[in-house]
Give the backbone structure.
Amino acid sequence: EEVKKVFLDCKISHTLLKEEESYDCTLIRLKAVDQNHNILPYFNEAITIETTDNLEIIGDSIISFKGGMTGLFIKSKGIEGAGFVRIKSSYFDDVLISLKVLINRKDAYL
């Protein structure tokens, strides 16, 4: 069956980032799949990543798929609260990933 639409399959290592001695980070793994959940091995297009102020991308904000897959690391920036990662592409609908940052540092109350 031919590819009718491209979807993004996201796997997130964890959605709660806990800052203690230093920042915390999460790994987001991405796969481009078709309507039957088959990976698209020739999908090598670029995507744009955006974050809220309490999160930061480790690396570039524009990354490309290789063999239908890619990944990125997101780290906390010392600001507690809810945060979001938005993944944008012209090939699929925007994806919004919700994360939460908790600060538990000894120096946070000084």
